[in-house]
C-alpha cells in the first residue's frame, strides 16, 4: 500500500466517491524548492491528492489536502496541482470538491507559496459560474486559505476538528479562545455567511452528494435533474399554517418533499435552498417570520423584517442560480425592514444587492405572496416591477404600501377610534390587499394555498423556454 493510499486525505476521497472510481492525477509530483533542506523532507504528492471520480455516477474532480505531508501546507507545486484540477474540471464541465486540512502557507517556499495562493484564487474566480465549487473544512483553514471556501459556491465544516479563521481567536484584540472560539464550526456557520452546513464527515458527504445530484453539472447543463414520481396535482393541505417558517412550506411543495437548504444557520430570517417541481431543480428564496423547535414550539420570531445579512444571503443565492440557469421561486411574506442601529449601517447597500440580483437574473422567476407584502421590502423580493415573470398570491394575502391600520393613523391623525376603523377598512379594501394589486396587473393569479404546488409546476413548465436578449453591457456594478 502506498503512502497516499494509507493517508487520511485518500481515505476521505475513498469514502466520498463511488467504490473504486477514483483516479489520481499527479501522484509523483513533489516540492521543487530545495531551500532550507526542503528536498530532504518526504513530500508525497506535495501534500495534496488530486484526481477525479464518480459520485452517484456523476463525474467530479477532487483535491484533498494531506496534513501528514509537510502539514498540508501550500507550496508552488501543491497549488499547481489544484489549479490543474480546476482546468480539467472546466474542460469537462464537472464540479470541483476540495477537502481542506492545511497548515497554511509553506514558509520554506515564501513568495512562491504566496503566488500559489493567488493561482488557486484566480482559478476559483475563473471557474465561478461555469462549474459548481464545493469546499469542506476538515482541519485548519486559516489566514489566506479562508478565501478558498469563501470563493466556493458551497462550503462545509466538520464540527469536531474543522477550524476556519482569518485571524486566530487569540490574535483578536480583547478575545481568547476560551472566551469565544471564533474559528469553531458553530461560530463560522452562524456569522461568516460562507458555511452551508456543519456536521460530521458522513453528514457532510451526504449533503454534497445531494447537491451534486440536484444541481446541473455546469452552466450549460439541464435543470431537469431527475424523474418525478410525485403527483403533479397533489394538494398541499394546511399550507397556510406553514407560512411563518417557509422551510416546511417549501418541503411540502417539492417533489417527494425534498428541500435542500443552504446556509441554514446564517441569517435565519431568510431561507434559501433547492426544491424540485416535476423533476426540475428550482432555487427558492423565502422570508422567514418564525422558526420552530423539534416539538413544534416557537423558537425565534423575526417579525417579518428584512435584515442586511438576509438580503446579502438571498442576493448571492439568486446570483448563483442565474449563473447556472436555475429558475427562481421567491416566497414573499414581509412587512418591512429591521429597525436597529446595527442593521441601519448596512441595510441600504444590502437591499440594493438583493434588488440587483433579482433584476439582473434572466432565468424564469416566479413570486408567491403568502400572507403580507408591504412597502419597499415587498418590491425588492422579486416583485413584478423588478422582473418577476409571474406573481401569484394566496387568497386573503395583503399587498400594499403598509398595514392598513398604520396607514389610517398617518392619513387621519385626528380621527377617533370609530373613524379610524372605518378608514382602515376602506384603505384595506382599496389599497392593501392582493385583489387590488391583481386588478392593476401586479398579481397574475389568486389561488388557494392547497393548490400552490400544481400552479407552480405549471408556471415553471411554461417558463422553461424563456429567452431574452440582454442589454449590451459588460456587467452591473452591484
General description of the model:
With 478 residues, the chain is an alpha/beta fold. The protein folds into two domains: 3-211, Alpha-Beta Complex (2-enoyl-CoA Hydratase, Chain A, domain 1); 223-397 and 433-463, 2-enoyl-CoA Hydratase, Chain A, domain 1 (Alpha-Beta Complex), CATH 3.90.226. It is built from 16 helices and 21 strands. The chain has helices at residues 3-6, 8-16, 76-92, 110-127, 147-151, 185-191, 201-214, 246-253, 308-323, 341-344, 347-360, 375-380, 404-411, 417-431, 434-439, 452-463, and strands spanning 23-25, 48-55, 58-65, 96-100, 133-137, 140-142, 154-158, 163-165, 195-199, 260-262, 270-277, 280-287, 290-292, 298-301, 305-306, 328-334, 336-337, 365-374, 390-394, 398-400, 445-447. Strands 10, 11, 12, 16, 18, 19, 20 and 21 form an eight-stranded mixed sheet that branches. The protein has a seven-stranded mixed sheet with strand order 1-2-3-4-5-7-9, sandwiched between helices. Helix 3 (76-92) links the parallel strand 3 (58-65) and strand 4 (96-100). Helix 3 runs parallel beside helix 4 and helix 13 (404-411) packs across helix 14. The longest helix has 18 residues, at 110-127. The chain is globular. 46% of the residues are buried.
